[in-house]
Design a protein that fits this description.
Helix content: under 10%
Number of helices: 3
Structural class: mainly beta
Strand content: over 45%
Shape: globular
CATH topology of one domain: Immunoglobulin-like
CATH class of one domain: Mainly Beta
Distance between the termini: 57 Å
Low-confidence stretches: 1-5, 13-29
Number of strands: 44
Radius of gyration: 26 Å
Length: about 725
């Protein structure tokens, strides 16, 4: 491709071709399993005992089959799941039989933990029955909860979504049980529809066994919503109008905290109040959310990194209001090139908080359309003509239309208004995803930005084709980013480049090693970047990698990477150490091992070594996780770099340690410590959380940063209470 003007034509041809292929794909004919839900009039007490007569009369989902380790074979332990409903709640009963009940693994009491080390059951509800999106609820034998929103069959798994549902678990001599009540007001669906999509998964951790009710083929799994079964008998179900408020009040003491946009440091007592979030159901499938003067003090702190590249580091979003229903707003290539990135709102480039006056969000489904709208006002701080920050308005509008069986086309518009030098920045884009078969997928997008003074080379586009099965993976990608593409509300790792990427993987399951090895993966890939204007090489990185997944869940990796990097500008890799612009060739080798994740003691080791620009670099990482009791978790990760360059030698060390003690599912404590030699600072984040009723919390949060890398040390002690009112 000689210039960016031909990119739209190439994308159009590929999209039309993909649509034609999708239309000719034969529909699936397999009969989906069904489970009937029954309306109940008696009271269901959520205590985990399953002693109400209605449970004995309800149909049970059984006949689970293995996804791992023996695909398609019956599960080694029996599982029964039943569903009831009334005017307020959807009720789910789990009976997980176990022939060796003393070895049931249940250790985690933390809400929204990934429950990696525990036995668990996961429930998927495709309430729109659109075979694309759904809700996922997971519980372990304690009844510890995890919930998530699934978008586009797992393209986005939003673990930040929280609903005030109730669950209780019990263990006995025959296994374990959990009873669940999910308020219908927190689910979106079409009233009058008799059928939802439904699936279940059960993980038996000591056996590293994964069982599913349907979609048990290894290529599918629980998040392949189109392969789910059906929940029928829901014709009389209605969604009570969602009305939910979470006001908060917070205060505390701080010293040495930088105030964004104002010289000096905050010190003394502080306090504020606001509306964490309010949710109002406009229709059974459309919800409006509001926030006023939000405070994100309880949000997990960013995990520090040592950046030895010339590119910005992508930090994930962690604030609840922005993460809620984030899947509909995803546009572009995640972590690489996005038209909209929520961390551009309310945070500076250094990660410091900027207060927000308000936020409004509208998300949901109208017929075949998924829609999203976001409007946020960022507060003015100090004098914008000097060192202050001006008031800014951020607007995002997104629409996606379901087409064919599992595909969509969509569009997005973003706008930032405010500032001193640039009064606005806008972006617009169209995208599409075609799932041609169960294994073939084609994605594409075309984006453009508008910035005062930039009138050309403002386009960015990508086309990607992927084939993925249990045995093979093939990926081919082309992406073009104009030299004046300027997504001020998004994220772009590189500007003014064209990228070519190809990957091929062979993933056998060797029978002669099946007692020890579950699967191997032999992968080869090539990443190639060239300058958008001149076509000259910027980066070329072919890589070979061999990964082995063992039956006990441990894993090893061995690989080799050959890098050619040609920076056009000097960049400072460490203070006082400059990499001059020229073409560099260097080779890197790496090896890693992570031990059995089902044990109380888990460790990991990784080493990477070889040449690095005009010198050498060795990188070592060690991790250790201890679970001495069901209530206590201790973990630590240490990363060390030793770099030798003609311009100077240096080393970096980053140590991150965490201690969590959970007295119960409602009383949780966590301490996170980071020691960064490169930044010359130590950071401590400690948090106490008491969940005094569902979705209502009391927090005590302490943050401290000290070290030579700071102008002055900072300390902050914060108290926060959030109260949930809803119906």
């Amino acid at each position: 491709m000689s210039n960016g003007r031909s990119l739209p034509r190439v994308l159009a041809v590929l999209l039309v071709s993909a649509a034609m292929m999708a239309q000719t794909s034969p529909p699936g004919v397999a009969q989906k399993p069904q489970l009937r839900a029954f309306r109940v009039s008696e009271t269901i007490k959520i205590d985990g005992q399953l002693d109400e007569p209605a449970w004995t009369q309800a149909e049970a989902a059984t006949d689970f089959r293995q996804e791992e380790p023996k695909e398609g074979q019956l599960a080694t332990e029996r599982t029964e799941i039943r569903i009831l409903f009334d005017d307020r709640n959807l009720y789910i009963a789990v009976r997980a039989f176990d022939s060796d009940a003393k070895r049931i693994q249940a250790r985690d009491l933390t809400r929204d933990s990934d429950l990696t080390n525990d036995d668990k059951v996961e429930i998927l509800l495709d309430t729109y029955h659109d075979q694309r999106n759904g809700y996922r609820f997971a519980v372990n034998p304690f009844g510890t909860q995890q919930d998530a929103l699934i978008t586009d069959e797992g393209r986005v798994v939003n673990l930040a979504w929280d609903a005030p549902w109730i669950s209780e678990g019990r263990r006995d001599s025959t296994g374990w049980t959990v009873e669940i009540a999910i308020p219908l007001s927190n689910l979106r669906f079409h009233e009058g529809a008799d059928t939802w999509g439904l699936n279940f998964a059960r993980i038996i951790r000591r056996k590293n066994e994964e069982n599913l009710w349907t979609a048990w083929k290894r290529e599918f799994g629980l998040e392949r919503v189109s392969q789910a079964g059906e929940l029928v008998g829901l014709g009389g179900i209605k969604r009570r109008r969602l009305l939910e408020f979470r006001p908060y009040a917070t205060g505390g003491w701080q010293q040495g905290i930088p105030q964004v946009g104002v010289p000096g440091f905050n010190a003394g007592v502080f306090g504020t109040a606001g509306l964490e979030v309010a949710r109002v159901g406009i229709t059974p499938s459309l919800t409006a959310e509001f926030t006023l003067n939000p405070d994100f003090g309880q949000t997990d702190v960013d995990e520090q990194v040592v950046n030895l590249t010339r590119f910005d580091v992508f930090f994930p979003e962690k604030r609840d209001f922005f993460l809620e229903n984030i899947g509909v707003f995803l546009f572009g290539r995640e972590t690489i090139n996005q038209l909209f990135f929520t961390r551009r709102i309310g945070l500076t480039e250094e990660g410091e908080r900027v207060p927000l006056d308000y936020g409004v969000k509208l998300t949901g489904k109208l017929g075949p359309y998924n829609i999203g709208f976001l409007q946020v006002q960022q507060r003015q701080l100090g004098d914008p003509a000097g060192i202050g920050i001006p008031r800014q308005q951020f607007t995002v509008a997104r629409v996606k239309r379901d087409i064919l069986k599992r595909s969509y086309i969509g569009a997005m518009f973003v706008n930032r208004e405010g500032g001193v030098t640039n009064a606005y920045n806008r972006g617009v884009g169209v995208d599409a995803e075609f799932n041609l078969t169960d294994y073939w997928q084609v994605k594409a997008f075309l984006m453009a930005t508008q910035t005062p003074g930039l009138t050309s080379n403002f386009l960015s586009g990508r086309v990607q084709a992927t084939y993925e099965s249990d045995r093979y993976r093939l990926v081919a990608l082309y992406e073009s980013i104009g030299s004046n593409f300027n997504p001020e509300m998004g994220f772009a790792e590189r500007i003014g480049v064209r990228q070519y990427f190809a990957q091929a993987a062979y993933k056998p399951r060797p029978k002669f090693l099946q007692k020890q090895v579950r699967q191997m993966e032999f992968e080869a890939e090539l990443e190639y970047y060239e300058d958008y204007r001149t076509g000259k090489l910027q980066t070329r990185a072919p890589q070979l990698q061999w990964t082995t997944l063992f039956q006990n869940s441990s894993q090893s990796e061995v690989g080799f990477r050959e890098v050619t990097d040609a920076p056009t500008q000097p960049f400072e890799i460490r203070p006082g150490i400059i990499i001059p612009p020229e073409t560099y060739h260097f080779n890197r080798s790496f090896v890693s091992y992570n031990s059995d994740s089902t044990k109380r003691v888990i460790f990991g080791l990784a080493e990477e070594w070889g040449s690095f620009y005009s010198g050498t670099r060795s990188e070592s990482e060690a991790s250790l996780t201890l679970r001495p009791t069901d209530h206590l978790l201790l973990s630590a990760v240490d990363s060390y770099n030793l770099v030798h360059l003609p311009q100077g030698d240096f080393s970096t060390n980053l140590l991150a340690g965490r201690a969590s003690y959970n007295f119960s599912r409602k009383l949780l404590t966590n301490v996170f410590v980071q020691v960064n030699s490169a930044a010359q600072l130590t950071a401590i984040n400690a948090r106490f959380r008491y969940i005094f009723r569902p979705h209502s919390d009391f927090y005590v949060i302490y943050n401290q940063s000290t070290g030579k890398g700071l102008v002055r040390p900072s300390h902050q002690l914060q108290f926060k209470i959030v109260y949930h009112y809803g119906r």
